[in-house]
Amino acid sequence: MSGPDLTARLVRHIRAHGPMTIASYMAMALHDPQSGYYARRQPLGAAGDFVTAPEISQIFGEVVGLSCADFWRNISRPDPVVLAELGPGLGTLMADFLRAAAVVPGFREAARLVLIDASPVLREEQRQRLGAFDPFWAGGFDEVPDGPLLLVANEFLDALPIRQLVRGRRQWRELLVAADASGGLCLSEGPESPAVTLLVPPQRREAPPGAIVEICPAASTLAAALAERLTRQPGAALFVDYGYAGSAPGATLAAIDGHRAVGVLDRPGTADLSAHVDFTAFAAAARAGGAAVHGPVTQRDFLTALGAETRLEVLLRKASPAQRGLLETGLRRLIDPQEMGTLFKAVAVTSPGLPAPAGFTG
């Protein structure tokens, strides 16, 4: 089914039940089993809508793999250890991760691979790249088997549904998705409400009228669930994504189709929807659940601390001139402050009392 079909279903739902939150709209546009973006498309790569760090440079997955294997070694090499990835995409990150981590004796044998992805299209891609490691597919974090845990997630949090709250004259109100007279979708402001005001982080409630704050309940729920797990069983989770810590940038929700920005409400189901991650809120939810949090640090500082530039030098020694250019350009794109180096950040959540993972020890 195409975008217009999902639009018609959304309009019918809104006319029957009233305007929906942006979070509900995102969930349906991205994950509807018939017409959702991830149910229908393979979004990654030049032929898709966006390219992530693992596709840009093999060094990303390699240094992350080595850092996780090093953490496993520092917590007395539990065997088995659950090695999980949230939103594994094409499986590129995990393939590079496991190839590099194989140099740490015993790690590959101890790891039990779990891929958390509901997309049938992407699961097939993952099967082709990672089938030899006998992965278990889970639909959500709650399905991950018990045991010591190592979890990675690159550009996962940004796709979780968000809500947009706008400051009114006295209280806050919520931006909702409504139906217009022509049968399309539009944004509409709900009423000012003390209940909506309570959803706004306390430090941001006195913003001027018209200010917009985004909240992501799904990210906070995940952080709390992860913290609960890590207080019972040893482990660590690494998240890399684009976002902010401290001051909020306002509205960041965006849609990408064919590497081009499009309207958020245009042809739902055909475009990727994402918003900048509030790392401060995510870290606070994890700490409230009893976990330790390290970072966030910029992607540039994180990858540099893991030895990405040293790894590049090693790869260049055996590379052809064409390969050299791709290797150098790829890493530069990941760490250059004008590209992904500072907008993207890394944060680690660990069991309390464990050492900080590599990349966060500074």
Description:
This protein has 362 residues and is of the alpha/beta class. The chain folds into 2 domains: 81 residues, no CATH class; 230 residues, 3-Layer(aba) Sandwich (Rossmann fold), CATH 3.40.50.150. 38% of the residues lie in helices and 22% in strands. It is built from 14 helices and 16 strands. The strands form 3 sheets. Strands 2, 3, 4, 5, 10, 14, 15 and 16 form an 8-stranded mixed sheet that branches. Helix 5 crosses helix 6. The longest helix is centred in the first third of the chain and has 17 residues. The relative contact order is 0.15. The mean pLDDT is 93.
CATH architecture of the largest domain: 3-Layer(aba) Sandwich
Number of helices: 14
Shape category: globular
Helix amount, in percent? Answer: 25-40%
Question: How would you describe this structure in keywords?
Answer:
eight-stranded mixed beta sheet, alpha/beta, 14 helices, 2 domains, 22% strand, 362 residues, Rossmann fold, five-stranded antiparallel beta sheet
What's this model, at a glance?
This protein has 362 residues and is an alpha/beta fold.
SSE topology sketch:
Blueprint lengths: L2 H15 L2 E2 H10 L5 H4 L12 H4 L1 H17 L6 E6 L5 H10 L5 H4 E6 L3 H11 L5 E3 L10 E6 L8 E5 L4 E8 L5 E5 L4 H6 L12 E4 L1 H16 L2 E10 L9 E4 L2 E3 L9 E3 L2 E2 H10 L3 E7 H7 L2 H10 L3 H15 L8 E7 L12
Parallel strand pairs: 2-3, 2-5, 3-4, 5-10, 10-14
Antiparallel strand pairs: 1-7, 6-7, 6-9, 7-8, 10-16, 11-12, 11-13, 15-16
